[in-house]
């Protein structure tokens, strides 16, 4: 603020020589920079430079034991010819399309349930948050046991309900992705629930009281007060959840390793395999670029829609 | 390569060296008796006691040499070594975990030419040397040669009143497996006739070794019979189904050691594993081993396996000592040390077999170990091996999990290999 208001004030004063002005206004700028510099240095060294380097790499052929060589669009051509890339792109989209709405709906539902006075409230809030801080490997192993096609509790329960031919879950190409989505929603819902809870606390209680006096029912109160009041939170959750969904890697690697076949292989996993395992940094960078464009594109669209709504 | 059993990894190396003095002929070094520290790349040392045995034996014979292992996590071994070499690392002896990695390093000129050393060795007694031949030159020498056999649980066979599985055909094997599937273990687990681990080699490498099929060709019709057999056993309930084994990450060792399976095709690295389990008191299985079942009865036993070798870094600091160590580890002395702890050395002789005390005393187990056999390389080496390996693994999963028919899986694997790799 200092920087932007200074010129306005100066206008009312008699003109001064240019040089001293610049010197005087430089100082607050430098002070400002010095505050952000440590953080920016870390960001630049560890994120920005590698990102730009990665962009350049996607046009090169480079392995850990050779010199980079400019190959133009060869990596992209190779990527397009590779059937695994298209499958991974589809799987990533499939996962995001299942994970984002389900996580948001369930975490919002939990937040509404737990945003009231209730015996054992702290216990329930902690219980729902717990999956998020549990070791991911443990989560994957336990869900794999639950989803065991022959002796897992999930299928035993389904059989109890009369389902004679329950899904094969992680051993079936059709059901592996739904199984992964269920496990990931279960793991993430607690985290987003906490965000929604924080958002709910900011909605003034007077609004609900006034609505009640006017005869609004629970659904009307939710639709006309809670949802609009939560809009900033919902937007934040949506963006975070979208970014996390497209980047999914760990849970899938531990739970199915992309299988059976390629039924759950996602882009970030393919980047890891092509880059680290096969040493094809150029091809891996090209796929990363696609993933980046995908995530950035969705985020920008969400920002545009949000801005229009606010206007 | 993540499929490879960690026990195989155990190979490693260690090494050592130095010697200078150890043999009276090595007297031309600057200071042959001066202290030398030889560095050797190795993995998971705590689970590979056999290598400490090898190093200790070498150090005992060469008092001026100290072996310093460069320990690397088994799963990261190929990537780590590649990175080390790219960075000009000077580790003297490099253990070649498998032939595919060897070909990569050697083709990049990162390994010292050992053709001269190989010329001095009793090569007729060293098994598994052939895959290391690159245009007539060698850059590594195998010290260990594992091959696949059929492990069986004697108590379960005897309880069922069935003869031990000597030189079976696959049809006989299948029939036996179904007969042996009955009852439960003391822990209440179902007892299966056999267990096929989830690796694709259990089906594909066996088919390639016994039909002469080429896993790099893109024509995979030769897999069909072996898949039909494996799926039939699984559908009959005589083998644990693939889906369960895969999703539950079933450990083949516990399947066999707790008596949940009467038979199991597996590599000879497992001999040391069973020995350790029995000595450690975690298993009381009465085991034996038989030759792999065959397609055609009566002929020479055909199976598959993979050698593990030592190489010298192009940037090594102690080249002479490194060669000395390799000569020791791949020769009779090293072989006896390895045999003593249940590891199958590449070097074979009667004395080595006599030192192999981990082997059960019965005749069948001994002949399985000593007979002449045709050991095909688990996976042929080429620039495209790794890509094809990935495709074959994915299609293997789909066939075994019942997600694709055998014909579709074989066709898709071939199409993908031809369109995307070859």
TrEMBL record, chain A:
<keyword id="KW-1003">Cell membrane</keyword>
<keyword id="KW-0472">Membrane</keyword>
<dbReference type="GO" id="GO:0005886">
    <property type="term" value="C:plasma membrane"/>
</dbReference>
<comment type="similarity">
    <text>Belongs to the binding-protein-dependent transport system permease family.</text>
</comment>
<feature type="transmembrane region" description="Helical">
    <location>
        <begin position="30"/>
        <end position="60"/>
    </location>
</feature>
<feature type="transmembrane region" description="Helical">
    <location>
        <begin position="235"/>
        <end position="255"/>
    </location>
</feature>
<feature type="domain" description="ABC transmembrane type-1">
    <location>
        <begin position="89"/>
        <end position="302"/>
    </location>
</feature>
<protein>
    <submittedName>
        <fullName>Carbohydrate ABC transporter membrane protein 1 (CUT1 family)</fullName>
    </submittedName>
</protein>
<feature type="transmembrane region" description="Helical">
    <location>
        <begin position="94"/>
        <end position="114"/>
    </location>
</feature>
<feature type="transmembrane region" description="Helical">
    <location>
        <begin position="126"/>
        <end position="147"/>
    </location>
</feature>
<feature type="transmembrane region" description="Helical">
    <location>
        <begin position="281"/>
        <end position="305"/>
    </location>
</feature>
<dbReference type="Pfam" id="PF00528">
    <property type="entry name" value="BPD_transp_1"/>
</dbReference>
<dbReference type="GO" id="GO:0055085">
    <property type="term" value="P:transmembrane transport"/>
</dbReference>
<dbReference type="InterPro" id="IPR000515">
    <property type="entry name" value="MetI-like"/>
</dbReference>
<feature type="transmembrane region" description="Helical">
    <location>
        <begin position="167"/>
        <end position="186"/>
    </location>
</feature>
<keyword id="KW-0813">Transport</keyword>
<dbReference type="InterPro" id="IPR051393">
    <property type="entry name" value="ABC_transporter_permease"/>
</dbReference>
<dbReference type="InterPro" id="IPR035906">
    <property type="entry name" value="MetI-like_sf"/>
</dbReference>
<feature type="region of interest" description="Disordered">
    <location>
        <begin position="1"/>
        <end position="23"/>
    </location>
</feature>
<keyword id="KW-0812">Transmembrane</keyword>
<keyword id="KW-1133">Transmembrane helix</keyword>
Automatic annotation (TrEMBL), chain B:
<dbReference type="InterPro" id="IPR006059">
    <property type="entry name" value="SBP"/>
</dbReference>
<protein>
    <submittedName>
        <fullName>Carbohydrate ABC transporter substrate-binding protein (CUT1 family)</fullName>
    </submittedName>
</protein>
<dbReference type="Pfam" id="PF01547">
    <property type="entry name" value="SBP_bac_1"/>
</dbReference>
<keyword id="KW-0732">Signal</keyword>
<feature type="signal peptide">
    <location>
        <begin position="1"/>
        <end position="20"/>
    </location>
</feature>
<dbReference type="InterPro" id="IPR050490">
    <property type="entry name" value="Bact_solute-bd_prot1"/>
</dbReference>
């Amino acid at each position: 603020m200092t920087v932007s208001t200074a010129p306005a004030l100066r206008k009312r004063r008699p003109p001064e020589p240019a040089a001293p002005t610049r010197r005087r206004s430089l100082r607050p700028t430098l002070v400002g920079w010095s505050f952000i510099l440590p953080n920016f240095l870390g960001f630049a060294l560890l994120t920005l430079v590698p990102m730009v380097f990665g962009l350049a790499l996607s046009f090169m052929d480079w392995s850990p034991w050779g010199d980079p060589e400019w190959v133009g669009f060869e990596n992209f051509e190779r990527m397009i010819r590779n059937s695994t890339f298209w499958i991974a792109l589809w799987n990533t989209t499939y996962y995001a399309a299942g994970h984002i709405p389900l996580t948001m709906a369930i975490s919002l539902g939990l937040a509404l349930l737990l945003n009231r006075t209730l015996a054992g409230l702290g216990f329930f809030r902690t219980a729902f948050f717990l999956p998020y801080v549990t070791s991911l490997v443990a989560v994957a192993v336990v869900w794999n046991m639950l989803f065991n096609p022959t002796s897992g509790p999930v299928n035993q329960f389904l059989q109890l309900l009369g389902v004679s031919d329950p899904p094969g879950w992680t051993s079936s190409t059709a059901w592996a992705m739904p199984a992964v989505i269920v496990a990931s929603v279960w793991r993430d819902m607690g985290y987003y629930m906490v965000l929604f809870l924080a958002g709910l606390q900011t909605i003034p209680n007077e609004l609900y009281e006034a609505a009640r006096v006017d005869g609004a029912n629970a659904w009307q109160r939710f639709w006309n007060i809670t949802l609009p009041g939560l809009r900033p939170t919902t937007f934040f959750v949506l963006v975070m959840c979208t970014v996390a969904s497209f980047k999914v890697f760990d849970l899938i690697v531990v739970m199915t390793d992309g299988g059976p076949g390629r039924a759950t292989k996602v882009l970030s996993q393919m980047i890891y395999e092509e880059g680290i395992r096969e040493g094809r940094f150029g091809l891996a960078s090209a796929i990363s670029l696609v993933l980046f464009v995908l995530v950035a594109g969705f985020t920008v669209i969400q920002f545009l829609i949000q801005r229009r709504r606010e206007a | 390569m993540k499929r490879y059993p960690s026990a195989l990894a155990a190979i490693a190396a260690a090494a050592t060296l130095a010697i200078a003095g150890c043999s009276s002929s090595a007297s031309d070094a600057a200071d042959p008796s001066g202290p030398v520290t030889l560095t050797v790349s190795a993995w998971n040392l705590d689970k590979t006691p056999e290598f400490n045995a090898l190093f200790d034996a070498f150090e005992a014979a060469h008092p001026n040499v100290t072996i310093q292992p460069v320990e690397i996590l088994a799963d990261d071994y190929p990537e780590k070594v590649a990175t080390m070499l790219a960075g000009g690392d000077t580790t003297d002896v490099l253990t070649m975990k498998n032939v595919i990695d060897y070909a990569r390093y050697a083709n990049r000129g990162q390994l010292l030419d050992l053709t001269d050393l190989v010329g001095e060795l009793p090569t007729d007694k060293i098994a598994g040397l052939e895959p290391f031949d690159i245009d007539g030159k060698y850059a590594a020498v195998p010290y260990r040669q594992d091959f696949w056999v059929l492990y069986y649980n004697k108590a379960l066979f005897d309880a069922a009143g069935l003869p031990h599985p000597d030189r079976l055909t696959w049809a006989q094997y299948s029939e036996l497996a179904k007969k042996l599937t009955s009852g439960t273990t003391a822990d209440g687990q179902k007892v299966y006739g056999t267990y096929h681990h989830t690796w694709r080699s259990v089906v594909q490498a066996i088919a390639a070794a016994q039909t002469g099929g080429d896993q790099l060709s893109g024509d995979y019709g030769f897999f069909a019979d072996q898949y039909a057999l494996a799926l039939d056993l699984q559908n009959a309930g005589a083998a644990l189904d693939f889906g369960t084994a895969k999703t539950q990450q079933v450990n083949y060792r516990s399947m066999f050691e707790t008596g949940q399976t009467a038979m199991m095709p597996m590599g000879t690295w497992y001999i040391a594993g069973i020995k350790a389990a029995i000595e450690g008191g975690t298993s009381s299985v009465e085991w034996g081993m038989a030759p792999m079942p065959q397609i055609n009865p009566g002929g020479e036993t055909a199976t598959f396996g993979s050698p593990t070798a030592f190489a010298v870094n192009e940037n090594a600091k102690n080249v002479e000592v490194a060669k000395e160590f390799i000569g020791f580890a791949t020769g009779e002395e090293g072989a006896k040390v390895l045999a003593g702890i249940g590891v199958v050395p590449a070097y074979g002789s009667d004395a080595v077999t006599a030192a192999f005390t981990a082997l059960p005393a019965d005749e069948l187990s001994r002949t399985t170990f000593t007979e002449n056999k045709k050991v095909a390389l688990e996976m042929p080496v080429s620039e495209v091996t790794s890509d094809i390996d990935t495709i074959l693994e994915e299609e293997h999963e789909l066939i075994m999990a019942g997600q694709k028919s055998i014909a579709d899986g074989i066709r898709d694997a071939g199409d993908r290999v031809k369109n995307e790799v070859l």
